[in-house]
Amino acid sequence: MARKKIAVLTGAGVSAESGIGTFRDNGGLWDRYDPQVVASIQGWYQDRKLLLDFYNMRRAQLRDVRPNAAHRAIAALEEDYDVTVITQNVDNLHERAGSSRIIHLHGELTKVRPEYGVYDETFSEAEVIDIGFEPVHLGDKAPNGSQLRPHIVWFGEAVPKIEKAVEVVSGADILLIVGTSLSVYPAAGLYRYAAPGAPIYIIDPQDVPLHDSRITHIRAVATEGMDRFRELLKNS
Ligand code: OAD
Question: Domain count of the chain?
Answer without folding.
Answer: 2
